[in-house]
Every structure is written in C-alpha cells, then in structure tokens.
C-alpha cells in the first residue's frame, strides 16, 4: 500500500468508525494487538476525532448536514481509502489533499505542529462559536478535525501527517462541467516573497514559484447590494482572524462562466450550466440564497462567483512564526525588502488583505 493510500485509509476509518461496544473494549488481547500495530505504523496512523461533539453539533444544528449523508461521502462500494481521491502534495507546508468521491468535502493535512496546535488550543473553540453566529461567514466550513496522539513510528519520524481537517469544497460541481470554471488562491502580493524577489526569482524553480499566491487580473462585477454584503462579511471575518493573531490566510475565488446571462441575473435557482452546478445538498446549502459559498451572480450576468477564506493556521504568537519573524526582520535591516505575509502583524495583514479584495470589486447595477 502506498503512502497516500494509507493516509486516506486512516482518515476514512477515523470518520466512519463507530464507538466500540463494551464487549469489544473489554477484549484485552485485541487492544494490545491494535496498539502494537499502531506503534509500528508508518503512514496509516491511528487518528481520532478532536471535539467530535462540537463539530457534530455545528454540522447538524447550524449547517443542516445529515450525519448519515456526511459519513456516506467517505464510503463507497470499495473499502477504506478508496472513497478518497488524492489531489497531490500542495504548497510549502507539505500538506496532502484528498477529495471525497462525491466532491463535497476536501481533506487537508496540517503537518506542522505550530499550525495544528494553534487551531486545537487557541482557535477551534472561538471558531465554532463564531461560525454558529455568522451563517454568511466566508471562512471555510471545517466539518471535522482529526489528530493522532498515540505513539507511532510514522508520527515520530514525520512520515505521515498527524492532523487533518475536513472542509467543504466550493469547487463542488466542477467535475460535471466540461469547462467554464476558473479559480484563484489570492493573497496580497505586495509582501516580500524570497522565492520571487531574491535575484528576481532566478534561484528558485518555476514549480516552486507556481505555488505562490495567484493574481486576479479582472473584476468581480457586483450589484451595490451584493458588493456591500461581500465587503461586510470580509470585514467581520478578517477582524475575527486578526483578533486571534492569524495571518497569511487567503481568499479562494471561483468564477463560473454563465451560458445564459439573463437567467444568471434573475433571483432564485438559475437554468445556466454554472448554476446547475450549485449544490443542493449539505454542507453547501446556502443560509439564504444567493451565497458566496454556492454562487453569487455577477450583475452583468456573465459569471457566477464563489469565495471562501482559507488557511488561517499561521499564528504570530507560536514559536516558529516568532523565530521566522526575527529572521526576516534581521534580513530586512540588510536588504530593505520589507515584511513577509507570515511575519507582518495581524492588523497590517488584514488591512492589505482587505485592500486587495476591495480593488477586485466593481459595482455595476442594472440600468
């Protein structure tokens, strides 16, 4: 079994595992064999759900997610990890990505200790409370948090990620469409990026530079009402993140071409190809249509947009970010390059992030 298949199997088993019965838990030999197997696991780590009751509550009570449907997304006629599709290793963090067979959910690993410890110890409780109070939030909906706390060789040797999140997939529906879907992972580009800015990027491979933030060279054309609602959500969400010391998050923007510009601007469900891809089932049912999580039509009728704020796991008060900040400040005294997105202050990052978003919006109401 390969590395990705083993990781996928461990995720699926953690999601679909039922609590052991009293008889099974009393099987001492079985428990000893299980612990022995877990210790020598290199890739298939023994994962468990972190705060399962709280995540189950927000899924069912606030996001209208049926538990049976949720578990079914991680199962098919085959066994174990076959229900997850590997999406490769992405980004500088070494994260692994998987999609459920129905494309409703993504599984992303959080391999770096300072990131998953920040989410577990500092952010998860306020995040769940905030998301329960803000149904129109742009923060990605995290439906599950998995972790390995047992002794295992794979965890000790860092051969497999010890923590994962399950989150909604706002690209849901793209597999059914032949074309017309575009997406960007956007961060403020005015920061210092060593891969891009040292020696004009000549010291770094194109593959590495391709992992940097995208640039959106166009406009999100919105009505005045939709633009104000979008900006208000951005301001609320980024204030929440800044209040909890988070930086380096990104805006994931999806643009779907509308085949019927007239229908795309009409209220209610649309008959366009893009709108047909809008999910009708949890977790992506909008609180009130239209929703940035499922599709907001542009005011000119040409596109349908989705957006979500991702990757808010870099916290300024953790040891590694503090050391990185010190290093970059020292480097800046010599070069004058300025801060990186991971070493600036939470408030300063928020201001640049909001400025980036505002510059992409064009208000254009119908005549």
Automatic annotation (TrEMBL):
The protein's matches in Pfam families, at most eight in alphabetical order, are given as:
PIP5K
> Under what name is this protein listed?
PIPK domain-containing protein
Q: Which residues form a coiled coil?
A: none
Q: Which PANTHER family match?
A: PHOSPHATIDYLINOSITOL-4-PHOSPHATE 5-KINASE (PTHR23086), PIPK DOMAIN-CONTAINING PROTEIN (PTHR23086:SF126)
Q: Which parts of the sequence belong to the PIPK domain?
A: 1-361
GO BP term, example: phosphatidylinositol phosphate biosynthetic process
Q: Where is this region: Disordered?
A: 262-296
MF terms (GO), sorted A to Z: 1-phosphatidylinositol-4-phosphate 5-kinase activity; ATP binding
Q: Which residues form the signal peptide?
A: none
Would you say which domain of life the source belongs to?
Eukaryota
User: Which UniProt key words apply to this protein?
Assistant: ATP-binding, Kinase, Nucleotide-binding, Transferase
Source organism: Thyridium curvatum
Task: Output the SUPFAM superfamilies linked to this UniProt entry.
Answer: SAICAR synthase-like
Instruction: Kindly list the GO CC terms recorded for this protein.
Output: plasma membrane
- Which segments show compositional bias classed as Pro residues? 280-290
């Amino acid at each position: 079994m390969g590395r990705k298949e083993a990781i996928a199997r461990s995720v699926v088993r953690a999601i679909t595992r039922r609590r052991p019965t009293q008889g099974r838990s009393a099987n001492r030999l079985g428990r000893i064999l299980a612990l022995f197997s877990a210790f020598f696991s290199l890739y298939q780590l023994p994962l468990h759900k972190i705060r399962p009751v709280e995540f189950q509550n927000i899924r069912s009570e606030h996001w209208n997610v049926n538990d049976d449907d949720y578990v079914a997304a991680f199962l098919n006629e085959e066994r174990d990890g076959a229900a997850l599709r590997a999406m490769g290793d992405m980004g500088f963090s070494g994260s692994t990505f998987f999609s459920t067979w129905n494309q409703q959910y993504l599984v992303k690993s959080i391999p770096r200790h300072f990131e998953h410890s920040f989410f577990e110890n500092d952010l998860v409780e306020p995040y769940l409370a905030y998301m329960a109070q803000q149904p129109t939030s742009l923060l990605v909906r995290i439906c599950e948090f998995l972790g390995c706390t047992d002794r295992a060789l794979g965890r000790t040797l860092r051969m497999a990620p010890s923590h994962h999140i399950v989150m909604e997939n706002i690209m849901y529906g793209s597999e059914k469409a032949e074309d017309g879907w575009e997406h960007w992972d956007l961060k403020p580009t005015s920061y210092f990026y060593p891969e891009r800015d040292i020696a004009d990027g000549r010291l770094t491979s194109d593959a590495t530079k391709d992992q940097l933030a995208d640039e959106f060279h166009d406009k999100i054309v919105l009505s005045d009402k939709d633009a104000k609602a979008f900006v208000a959500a951005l301001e609320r969400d980024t204030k929440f993140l800044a209040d909890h010391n988070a930086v380096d998050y990104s805006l994931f923007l999806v643009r779907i071409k509308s085949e019927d510009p007239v229908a795309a601007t009409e209220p209610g469900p649309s008959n366009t190809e893009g709108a047909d891809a809008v999910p009708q089932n949890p977790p992506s049912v909008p609180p009130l249509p239209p929703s940035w999580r499922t599709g907001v039509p542009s005011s000119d009728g040409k596109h349908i947009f989705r957006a979500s704020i991702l990757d808010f796991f870099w916290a300024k008060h953790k040891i590694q970010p503090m050391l990185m900040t010190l290093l970059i400040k020292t480097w800046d005294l010599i070069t004058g390059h300025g801060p990186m997105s991971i070493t600036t202050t939470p408030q300063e990052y928020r201001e640049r992030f909001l400025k980036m978003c505002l510059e992409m919006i064009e208000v254009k109401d119908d005549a």
